[in-house]
Design brief:
There is one protein chain. The protein is an alpha/beta fold. It has a single domain, classed as Alpha-Beta Barrel (TIM Barrel). The chain is built from 15 helices and 12 strands. The strands form 3 sheets. An 8-stranded parallel β-barrel has the order 1-2-3-4-5-6-9-10, surrounded by 5 helices. A hairpin with a 4-residue loop joins strand 11 and strand 12. Helix 7 runs parallel beside helix 9 and helix 13 runs parallel beside helix 14. The protein starts with 20 loop residues before the first strand and ends with a helix. Bound molecules: 5-hydroxymethyl-3,4-dihydroxypiperidine. The site of 5-hydroxymethyl-3,4-dihydroxypiperidine has 8 residues, from loops.
């Protein structure tokens, strides 16, 4: 990693006068807390976190960063960064507590206040409609394995857009459907914690259908820029040149990348994908008109990038390789995932060139604007000394990845934004509070927020871009 002190050369504007926009992001269940307040219903993450052993430190989002009550302080922190955007997500169970039916106005009121607070501070509110907190009643009725969930998602999207659409211009339907579908319904390491093998492909299709139906409803509410946020990955095979290795590489690429991009760009699931996911060839699942609805339904593609994926045929048990993601690729021949040094505190390999590659290839493949909607690093930097957290390692990571973003843009890819994950140290899903990605440290005893050195570094980059 290069030294953080090296000045970053940011091409401030392109010939057309546009510049890269910066932002930071959070997600409802990871920061809000207040899970039983103002009529919020239970979500699958409330249920999953209560399951013994599901979360590393046995914690939950019950309090999290208490952002439901401290959103003004958070908005001030984002404003202090001088960035353009705040990307937040809306908790479906706050707005439609049972998943369908009655709307909870107090839940909508919260997001209304948040959006106004951002606008008052000159920030662009960017809303994600689904960052994994499915209302539990919908899971009880089958979750993403059933079509009705996609239809309910569209109804909920319409309610939210109806209330916020006059002030929110940029909408993301789903965040990382790969996690919602395959970590949730195949690997079982995320809520709802089900290990259903190939049935998870049903979830993938319903998520994409839900995206398309929701996008249509959001647009029906007025001018809106609607996209989808994918955790695509550069697939860098560790082994090549054998039929086994090629089958693994193609299968991993199919489920990590093509199952989302192909229907958006081609309106089809390709042959290699159908080989690992024959369920996607079932006309009862993929009904007439579904693929036509998904085709062209995104105005932009959001990319969340942290690490490359290096598969190799397994030498041991099927799809284990000691990696929790192994079970998230049903239908792919047994493989291991190789991780090279250096790694972050969560064990993810650091390689910024993967981001540049993804931005360039995704822009080419889709012909759409691409936005880095999440990028950041878990680093073991929890100590506050004299009111400071000196996270030079995080600065190094961000610096290299922002430089990779700029390089992709300079080479002609239509890269519009770079959004840092995340504003606050928060609830990191199955890792609980053991892994911290934030620009701002949170003292869980009293919720004191302490901006880290990386916060000040991002502020400097934002100032340079605005100059
Ligand atoms: O914290 C998550 C986020 O919710 C989704 N993208 C990856 C982040 C780090 O794991």
């Amino acid at each position: 990693m290069s030294t953080p002190q090296t000045p970053l050369s940011l091409p401030v504007r392109l010939a057309d006068g546009s510049r890269l926009e910066l932002g930071t992001a959070t997600a409802s269940y990871q920061v809000e807390g207040a899970i039983a307040e103002d009529g919020r219903g239970p979500s699958i993450w409330d249920t999953f976190t209560a399951r013994p052993g599901a979360v590393r430190d046995g914690s939950s989002g019950e309090v999290a960063c208490d952002s439901y009550h401290r959103y003004l302080e958070d908005a001030d922190l984002v404003a202090g960064l001088g960035v353009d955007w705040y990307r937040f997500s809306i908790a479906w169970p706050r707005v439609v507590p049972a998943g369908t039916g009655a709307v909870e106005q107090r839940g909508l009121d919260y997001y209304d206040r948040l959006v106004d607070a951002l606008l008052e501070r000159g920030l662009k509110p960017t809303a994600t409609l689904y960052h994994w907190d499915l209302p539990q009643p919908l899971e009880d009725a089958g979750g993403w394995l059933v079509r009705e969930t996609a239809e309910a998602f569209a109804d909920y999207a319409e309610v939210v857009a109806g209330r916020l659409g006059d002030r929110v211009g940029t909408w993301a339907t789903l965040n990382e459907p790969w996690c919602a579908g395959y970590l949730g319904y195949a690997a079982g390491v995320h809520a709802p914690g089900r290990s259903e093998g190939g049935a998870a492909h049903r979830a993938a299709h319903h998520l994409m259908l839900g995206h398309a139906l929701a996008a249509e409803r959001v647009r029906a509410n007025g001018p809106a820029d609607v996209g989808i946020v994918l955790n695509l990955a550069p697939i860098w095979p560790e082994t090549t040149g054998t039929p086994e290795a090629d089958a693994v590489t193609d299968g991993v690429d199919a489920l990590r990348n093509r199952v989302w991009l192909d229907p958006l760009v081609d309106g089809a699931y390709d042959e290699g994908l159908l080989a690992v996911a024959p369920e996607l060839g079932d006309p009862e699942l993929v009904r007439e008109g579904d693929l036509a609805a998904i085709l062209g339904s995104a105005d932009w593609i959001g990319i969340n990038y942290y690490t490359p994926v290096r598969p190799t045929p397994a030498t041991g048990a099927a799809n284990e390789g000691g990696h929790p993601e192994g079970g998230a690729y049903p239908g792919v021949p047994p493989f291991d995932l190789v991780v090279r040094e250096p790694v972050t505190d969560i064990g993810w390999e650091i390689d910024a060139s993967g981001l540049e590659e993804l931005l360039v290839t995704t822009a080419e493949r889709t012909g759409l604007p691409v936005l880095v909607m999440e990028n950041g690093a878990a680093m073991a930097d929890t100590a506050v000394t004299d009111g400071r957290v000196d996270d030079q390692d995080r600065i190094g990571y961000l610096r290299d990845h922002l430089a990779a973003t700029v390089a992709a843009r300079a080479s002609g890819a239509d890269v519009r934004a770079y959004v840092v994950w995340t504003l606050l140290d928060n609830f990191e899903w199955a890792e609980g509070y053991t892994k911290t990605f934030g620009l701002v440290h949170i003292d869980s005893r009293d919720q004191t927020r302490t901006p880290k050195a990386s916060y000040h570094w991002v502020a400097e980059q934002a100032a340079a871009l605005r100059a």
